[in-house]
Amino acid sequence: MTKQTLAAAPPCTLFLFGANGDLVKRLLMPALYNLSRDGLLDRNLRIVGVDHNPASAEDFAARLHAFMVERDKGGEGSAKCLDEKLWARLAKRLDYQTGDFLDPATYQALARRIDKTRHGNAIFYLATSPRFFPEVAQRLGQAGLLDESAGGFRRVVVEKPFGTDLASAEALNACLLKVMGERQIYRIDHYLGKETVQNILVSRFSNGLFESFWNNHYIDHVQITAAETVGVETRGAFYDSTGALRDMVPNHLFQLLAMVAMEPPAAFGADAVRGEKAKVVGAIRPWSAKMAQKNSVRGQYRAGKQGRKPLPGYRQEPNVAPDSQTETYVALKVMIDNWRWAGVPFYLRTGKRMSVRDTEIAICFKPAPYAQFRESELERPKPNYLKIQIQPNEGMWFDLQAKRPGPELVMENVELGFAYKDFFKMTPATGYETLIYDCLTGDQTLFQRADNIENGWRAVQPFLDAWAQGGEVHEYSAGEDGPEAGNELLTRDKREWHRLG
Ligand code: BG6
């Protein structure tokens, strides 16, 4: 999917609620800059920051500019090499509206900014704290800003986290759906903006080869890992009330699971793709409390080291309770109850402060029959893996066994691989470019539908409920790959985690 061949998106007024927050400066503005550089924004697109701090359009633009310059220097993120001329073109589109999110007057002011130059089109991007999602949506509805009867589109983008459990996610969906239609809602999961995640569908469904072995006859189990080296950084308060399970599993890891496990959609359109994804996430077996306890491992990092660098423990991080029981690591075993995957466990793990940054899916195949090698060291060949690496070393690799040259029959692990960097010129991107462009053009394929989100929480809820009854939070040292109990989740099934990196 190359955007270079695409036309500029239609004009609209893009309101960024939470304009002074981190998301806008770190990701949304660099993504808009990249879209503008690639000619994908209409020249009449207007970007209006909305926040409670009094500021002018010039202040808003200057603050964003300072950040873009800073990230060039510091090498943060991906909007490197800021071109001042291009920035000036984008800055001309920027505007700012001071306003309290709870005050109806704010919404009257926004209404006055939507005009005919942009055909009455407007997008309301909720880059705010989640407690404002229902509040803002309701007020947008009350102010008539979500009414499309005059012809212009009205869309609402909702950031993560979408709820904190099944009941709150259902309540939020109900609240949004009271004031707008599902077709107006764009629920973001930034993993869907990653090229490597989108590529899972393309690889699976445009190469006939894969379908022939993509099932429980040939696949032994699947591992999905999102390992991070970072700790909780400045987000201690948020993270301490969230934990690794809520932060990563019902959203990012389940998106990866859905991409790997879904049935082929009848078309590559939003309804067909999202329908299949919702179905497969809905087929995750809801564990009983006992099974949820048995099939999950929680961990929390203690002080440790990354190389020689000492790292603080989680409880020493700013804004984290000194006796916190919040998990910074989680490993789960889930089963998908459908014909394709019956009997194939999916093992999921994610953690902060692990040894390497590595988001990958490892598909482990059933071993070859080995009777013919009884007398040799080949008696127990290692299983074949297909590794789909989402980041940072993007690509796909098959682990195969090969005969080491020489008179002896000795086998060795070799790799058959495809690295993105060897085939494609990867222009720096934040991952939000495609998502913003798709929202501007009305393509919901890469956004989560209500049923997908609720099915995800439904599968996670048994773990939340079981943990609320007790159970151990295992310790691991920062810089290590989680607690030993995380490994035992697999060794008890006579399997092991694919090595990271
Ligand atoms: C966010 C989580 O949604 O995803 C963070 O809140 C996590 O805790 C991040 O670090 C991971 O995203 P990525 O793109 O770095 O894998």
Which geometry do the CA atoms define?
Answer: globular
Low-confidence runs of at least 5 consecutive residues: none
Strand runs, count: 17
Count of runs of 4 or more consecutive helical residues: 16
Pathway: Carbohydrate degradation; pentose phosphate pathway; D-ribulose 5-phosphate from D-glucose 6-phosphate (oxidative stage): step 1/3
Catalytic activity: D-glucose 6-phosphate + NADP(+) = 6-phospho-D-glucono-1,5-lactone + NADPH + H(+)
GO biological process, one term: glucose metabolic process
Pfam families: G6PD_C (PF02781), G6PD_N (PF00479)
Structure, explained:
- This protein is α/β, with parallel strands linked by helices.
- The chain folds into two domains: 13-159, NAD(P)-binding Rossmann-like Domain (Rossmann fold), CATH 3.40.50; 192-371 and 452-492, Dihydrodipicolinate Reductase, domain 2 (2-Layer Sandwich).
- Helix content is 36%, strand content 21%.
- The chain has 16 helices and 17 strands.
- The protein has helices at residues 22-37, 57-74, 84-91, 104-113, 132-142, 166-179, 195-206, 208-213, 236-240, 243-261, 270-282, 289-294, 420-423, 432-441, 450-468, 484-491, and strands at residues 13-17, 46-51, 94-98, 122-126, 154-158, 185-187, 219-227, 296-302, 304-306, 309-311, 329-335, 345-351, 358-365, 385-391, 395-403, 411-419, 473-477.
- A nine-stranded mixed β-sheet has the order 16-15-14-13-7-12-11-8-17, with helices on both faces. It has a six-stranded parallel β-sheet with strand order 3-2-1-4-5-6, with helices on both faces.
- Strand 4, helix 5 (132-142) and strand 5 form a beta-alpha-beta unit.
- The radius of gyration is 24 Å and the shape is globular.
- The two termini are 28 Å apart.
- The model has no long low-confidence stretch (mean pLDDT 94).
- Residues 160, 228, 247, 359 line the site of 6-O-phosphono-beta-D-glucopyranose.
- It comes from Pseudomonas alloputida.
- Residues 16-199 form the Glucose-6-phosphate dehydrogenase NAD-binding domain.
- Residues 298-322 are annotated as: Disordered.
- Pfam families: G6PD_C, G6PD_N.
- One of its GO terms (cellular component) is cytosol.
